[in-house]
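User: Hi! I'm working on a homework problem where we have to compare a predicted structure to a textbook description. Could you give me the structure for the chain below?
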Amino acid sequence: MDLFSYGEEAQPRARLLADRMRPESLDEYIGQEHIVGPGKLLRRAIEGDAVTSILLFGPPGSGKTTLAHIISKRTEGDFVRLNAVDASVKDVREVIEQAERNKSMYGRKTILFLDEVHRFNSARQDALLPAVEKGIIVFIGATTENPYHSVNGALLSRSTLFRLNALTKEHSLLAMRRALADPSKGLAFMKLRVEEEALAHIAAMANGDIRRALTALELAAVTTPSEPDGSVVVTLEIAEESIRQPTLQADESTQYDVLSAFHKSVRGSSDAALYWFLYAVEKLGMDPMTFLRRLTVACSEDIGLANPQAMVQAVSAMEAYHRIGWPESKFIVAQAILFAVESPKSNAIAVAIGNIMDSFEHTKSAEVPLHLRDGHYSGAKKLGHVGYRYPHDFPGHYVEQQYLPDKLKGKVFYEATEQGMEDRIRQNQDKRRKPQTRG
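Assistant: Happy to help. Predicted structure tokens:
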């Protein structure tokens, strides 16, 4: 073997293991059976070279780029890959111009794969729209962030969305075993033995990211000193050095999801509410104030007058966080969260607001009744601003009179529930109200 042929032989192994082991066909593809399993729509489209504009949404290492790579192998058209991190509008326009020439002159289609499409701002995404609408390009976008948050509605509506699920420990184990058994692209060219405990640790720490699992396996294999007989043994201890912490996905859409889980848990589970709060702050590095603001809203939206003290606890926790900081205020915030979750619940305030907002659609405009108008100036009586009855002059500090506009006379928007302290309000309402039209 001369120098040049040796270089050609060695070159493939200069690429990272995760890249070398990238599947070339759907039969080699790992996971996502719900979209590329036998008979599924996307599989049929790929095998028939009939892929239309699509968006691939899923966590890192779940196979989005690999699917695009397989499509590039199956298509008879041109396949162009851009990464939104460094691509510009100029780059996109050049691809579109070439695609237009290929289509008009040769009838040849162009597939544009845009990785990390969420990194494209709105203006750059807009540059794609005309070409997608006219069929000049087939657009494939890949994103780790919720496309409903990060992709223009117009582009999203013109693409079929496929959601890829997080892969499992078993998927990572399968990928690593393939790499260990493959002598050309994998690690079987080495005299390598990896202990089962080591494989299991790498798979667990990779947290469903096959790329990370293969990278850790390769790192362990190539950095471990060989035995006297030339063999390499990767033990659990070596695996623990190669990959330490699970991958945490803390992009914008993940943070929205965690915040949503927290608010929903405030309505029903102390354990879950406290868990999601601490997970977000301690593991994802989110700002505690984000959750304190949401907690304060929840204390009105979901608890309200059933227990007004929940709001006091939440605002006090917010003040304590500002004055004391984190992590010292951790216990105070946790107390406010638990107090809110264990409080009786009522959404009567939210319902009342919704009822009033709905009434605006029907009433359009409303005039203040004459007796409620300002009567503190000299000409008020001449304008008819009279007739208001001061409730404190009557028994029980209440007198029946019209407070709503004429068009809404008798409407009821806020109805207290029987929950907690709100039950006393309900009893008071029942005493004061005569049968009225519900809002």
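For your comparison, note the following. The chain has four domains: 31-163, 169-242, 252-342, 362-432. The mean pLDDT is 88. Good luck with the assignment!
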